[in-house]
Structure formats: structure tokens, C-alpha cells
UniProtKB/TrEMBL annotation:
Keywords: Membrane, Transmembrane, Transmembrane helix. This is MFS general substrate transporter. One of its GO terms (cellular component) is plasma membrane. InterPro entries: MFS (IPR011701), MFS_dom (IPR020846), MFS_trans_sf (IPR036259). It is found in: Membrane. It is a multi-pass membrane protein. The chain crosses the membrane at residues 52-75, 95-112, 119-136, 148-169, 176-195, 207-226, 313-331, 351-372, 393-412, 418-444, 456-475, 487-507.
Length: 531
């Protein structure tokens, strides 16, 4: 690593578009990270192999989310059967959300060291055990213990998926797939109460857990036979890709005389011939292959996410993601109360209400994924080829407009007894902005600090889930203000939060520049050469 801090690249700033590219590229887009020449490098996998790997990630996300969130529809009958108060049941759910984040301090380093595939499988086995246990809980203490363990075993759904996506796809592709992940995460969580409500009405509350256990059992089998390991040591980092250690301030846009020339740009990939042969199927499904990091890096990954709280980019991303989740939690906390008391909905009809938010979550992937990627490439070309992670954030302007509309339609509309369709549309807008806001946060922090993606994503999730845990205690006194005042306040806070992207588009690059010395030191200490 260069000893002069002024010669260090700014993390996240890279030359992404260059018509004269001579290295690995696709058309005029420079491939980042630079793939190795190894046939088994996930970046070199065939399209169908990548799509299968991504499908496994989404299957894990949806089914694990279903099993974790289906309980919302049966809290009342569960509490009556086990003589546990609703407050105690909700507190247990809060502990689960807290461990979904902080449990990553255990699961994430283990996955990055020994493999993501075994972590996904073993975590599902543990999750299956906690779901079966929920049928037999006997008191408040066992419920809380159960939810703590469920949060720990389900932690990979919150942070390991994002890192796996970065293993498979290049920088200019990640936004699309991250958007689909956010849709699967939020959409699955919104759909869980729909089927669980009908299962409770027709079969009884116990069958919500039995069916969830069945889903997880099927998931274990599917993952074992079809999920591949995506951990891979290239022995290089983005530091080695940035023009021999020059800063992005030194990267020039194409000269004017070059722009005037006619260029014929190939649309095919230009990469060196690949070496080696595809792993055997038995090797692919092995639960252990190798150790991917050093022992010192394993321990560093446990405490270093706490250190990243001092990086403004990571802190802001965590706040953005956390506050985006808050609106989802507010919707969940008030849906049953509003729709049952104000509109006379049955439990199954309350479940059907979540179809609106599910549609909103699905639409969000086009906003935070496809549209954001297109905007990123447009803005990058306009700048002369240099991509800055802040480029995507301009699309948060739409969130700053739609979230207040959705919250006011939901809360103020309910206070004034508007037609139920107004509430469904409000829920759709809240889900749209919540899911896309989370995707923007994850893309931004991953684009900024790609080489330590697993750790900075973990820090982001720690902030997010801590806020989610806190809102579980704050929502009741907040609602005591009345629906109208509560949601007008929420609308203003939400609009201010999403509008804060202006701060990052103005000073984000400076924040990243100030962090480059410590960041590249952490990166270099984490590299385990590929053999």
C-alpha cells in the first residue's frame, strides 16, 4: 500500500465507463471488480449459473422471512393459549429484530471465514428448531429465549445476502439485484400475514408454525442440493484496480479530440481466456471447502464493524435504512388496530390488506434497481466515466415526496374514516419507499467500501435493527398523540430524512476521502492471497 495518504485512491470512486478500455470490459463499461482468469471465480460463472445462485438467495430470503414474520397474525390466539400478554409477545419480537442485527457479529465473520453456503444451511436448521419450539413454549421467559435464538439463526437474511450479490455481480449490475433482494425481503414479510391469517382461521394457530417449519425443511433440502459457495479469494482489491494507485482525482475524462473521433465499440465482453475447469458437483455441495480469511481477520471482523460507526457514509446509510424500516414497523404496529377497530376487518381481511404493501415492495425494485442502474450509467458517462457512489442517491427525491403522502393517507386518512382503498394505497406508498430506501442505503455503502462489504453492511444493519428495536418501545407513546398528529409528525420526519441525501451528494466524497487511510489499511490486512 502506498505510504503517502495523498496517493491513496478514494474508496468507491472508480473509472466505470471508458470507450477506450483495454482491460476486462463489457462494451464501454469497465468490469469492477476485475474478474480473475479462474473458471470458478463467481464473477466468471455463466449467466444461468449466476441466476441459479441468485434464485437460491431469494428463496432463502422469502421462506426465512415467511417463517419469521408469520407470527404477527397469531399473536392474539397464541397469547390466549399460553397465557402470555400481548406486550410480552411483542417484546419478544423486538428481541428477535435486535438479534437479527447484532447476531451478525457472530454469523457474518464465520460465513466470510468458513463459507456462506454452510452458514445459510446451518442457520436454516437452527431456524427450523426455533419455529417448532414456538408451538411448545410455556411462559414468557421461554418465548423471549426462543425469539432471541430465532433472531440469531435468521441473521444471515439481513446481511449475508447483500455480500453474496456482490460476489456474483459487477458494480454496474448490483443495483438491479439489490433492488430484487429488497423486494423479496419486504414483499415476503408483507405476504407472511396474508397466508398466516387464513391458516389460523382454517387450521388453528399451531398450524402457522407447523407450515412454517415445513417451508424451512424444504428450504434446507433445496439449499443443500442447489446452492453454491460464492466466497472466493482473488488476492486483489480495488486498490490494485485504480490505475496503479493513482487517485480518482487524477482520472481524466476523455479528451475533446478523442470525443470527436468515430469509435466502434464492441458489445461483447473483452476478458482473458479462462483457466481451469468447473468444480465437480460433489465438491460444489461440500459443506466445507477451505478457510477464506486468516484467523486474525476472523477476530477483526467481530469488532471492526463497531469501528465503522465513525465513518459518516456508513452511519448515514444505517440511519437511512433504519428509518426506512421504522415506517414498515409503524405500519405493522397500527394495521390490525386501525383496520379492525375503524373498519371492522376480520383477521383474514387484515391479512389481505398486505397485498397493497406487497405490490409497493415489488414496484420498488424498478426504482432502486433498474432505474438507479440506468441513472448511474447516464451520470457516469456525463461526468466522463468516473462513478461516484452518491450518483444513485438523487433518486431518493421521489421517496421524499411519496413517503409523506403515504403516511398521511394511512394515518390521517384513518382518523377521518376515508374509504379503505385510500389506506391500501397509502400502505403501498409506504412499502414502496421503505423497500427502495433500504436498497439505496445498501447499494451506497457497498459501492463506497466494496472490499470490506461484509463488515460495513453489518454495521449498517446494526444501526438499522437497533432503531427498529427502539421504535418497538416508542410507538405506543407516539400513538397516544392520536393518529392525525402521529402521522403528520412521521410524514415530516420521513421527508426530512430522505431529503438528507443532499448532504451526501454534497459532502459524501469528502467523507470517503477522509476515511481512505484507515480503510485501505483495513483492506490490506484482510487480504488472503488466492492460490
Amino acid at each position: 500500500m502506498p505510504t503517502d495518504p495523498n496517493n491513496l485512491p478514494i474508496p468507491g470512486s472508480l473509472l466505470l465507463v471508458d470507450e477506450h478500455a483495454t482491460g476486462a470490459h463489457h462494451g464501454d463499461i469497465i468490469l469492477s471488480p476485475t474478474p480473475s482468469r479462474d473458471f470458478n471465480d463467481p464473477l466468471n460463472w455463466s449467466k444461468w449459473r449466476k441466476q441459479l445462485a441468485f434464485a437460491m438467495l431469494m428463496t432463502y430470503t422469502v421462506l426465512s422471512g415467511f417463517a419469521a414474520c408469520s407470527v404477527y397474525s397469531v399473536l392474539v390466539p397464541l397469547g390466549e393459549a399460553k397465557n402470555i400478554s400481548l406486550g410480552a409477545l411483542n417484546a419478544g419480537t423486538g428481541y428477535m429484530f435486535l438479534l437479527l442485527g447484532w447476531g451478525g457479529l457472530i454469523t457474518q465473520p464465520l460465513a466470510l471465514t468458513f463459507g456462506k453456503r454452510p452458514m445459510f444451511i446451518f442457520s436454516t436448521v437452527g431456524h427450523l428448531g426455533t419455529v417448532i419450539w414456538q408451538v411448545y413454549i410455556s411462559n414468557e421467559g421461554t418465548w423471549h429465549a426462543n425469539k432471541v435464538l430465532q433472531g440469531l439463526f435468521t441473521a444471515p437474511i439481513e446481511m449475508l445476502i447483500e455480500v453474496s450479490i456482490a460476489d456474483l455481480f459487477f458494480a454496474h449490475e448490483r443495483g438491479f439485484y439489490m433492488g430484487l433482494y429488497a423486494t423479496a425481503l419486504y414483499g415476503g414479510n408483507f405476504l407472511a400475514p396474508v397466508w398466516a391469517g387464513f391458516a389460523n382461521d382454517t387450521l388453528g394457530w399451531e398450524w402457522v408454525f407447523w407450515l412454517s417449519a415445513l417451508m424451512l425443511g424444504v428450504l434446507i433440502v433445496v439449499l443443500f442440493f442447489f446452492m453454491e459457495e460464492t466466497n472466493y479469494n482473488r488476492g486483489t482489491t480495488e486498490l490494485g484496480e485504480k490505475h496503479g494507485g493513482t487517485t480518482t482525482d487524477d482520472v481524466e475524462a476523455p479528451h475533446e479530440d478523442d470525443k470527436d473521433k468515430d469509435h466502434t465499440v464492441t458489445v461483447e465482453d473483452s476478458r482473458p481466456a479462462l483457466e481451469g475447469k468447473e468444480y465437480s458437483y460433489m465438491y460444489k455441495i461440500a459443506l466445507y471447502r477451505q478457510r477464506y480469511t486468516t484467523w486474525s481477520t476472523l477476530w477483526a471482523q467481530v469488532y471492526r464493524p463497531i469501528i465503522f460507526f465513525r465513518y459518516p457514509v456508513v452511519l448515514w446509510s444505517g440511519l437511512l435504512y433504519g428509518c426506512s424500516l421504522v415506517w414498515y414497523n409503524v405500519l405493522n404496529a397500527t394495521a390490525s388496530m386501525i383496520l379492525t377497530e375503524n373498519y371492522g376487518f376480520s383477521a383474514s381481511m387484515v391479512g389481505l390488506f398486505y397485498l397493497g404493501p406487497t405490490i409497493g415492495a415489488c414496484l420498488s425494485s424498478a426504482h432502486s434497481g433498474w432505474a438507479a442502474d440506468k441513472w448511474l450509467l447516464y451520470y457516469t458517462r456525463k461526468r466522463g466515466g468516473v462513478r461516484e457512489p452518491e450518483d444513485r442517491l438523487w433518486l431518493l427525491a421521489l421517496n421524499a415526496i411519496l413517503l409523506p403522502v403515504g403516511l398521511i393517507l394511512w394515518g390521517v386518512g384513518a382518523a377521518n374514516n376515508v374509504h379503505w382503498f385510500g389506506l391500501v394505497f397509502g400502505g403501498l406508498l409506504v412499502a414502496f419507499t421503505s423497500a427502495s430506501g433500504g436498497a439505496f442505503a445498501l447499494n451506497y455503502v457497498m459501492d463506497s467500501y466494496k472490499d470490506l462489504g461484509g463488515e460495513v453492511v453489518l454495521t449498517t444493519i446494526l444501526i438499522r435493527n437497533s432503531l427498529s428495536f427502539a421504535i418497538g418501545y416508542g410507538i405506543t407513546p407516539w400513538l397516544n398523540m392520536g393518529l392525525k398528529n402521529t402521522f403528520i409528525t412521521a410524514a415530516m420526519v420521513g421527508m426530512a430524512l430522505y431529503a438528507s441525501f443532499i448532504i451526501m451528494t454534497t459532502w459524501g466524497k469528502r467523507f470517503r476521502k477522509n476515511s481512505r487511510t484507515s480503510y485501505w489499511r483495513y483492506v490490506e490486512s484482510s487480504v488472503m492471497p488466492h492460490h
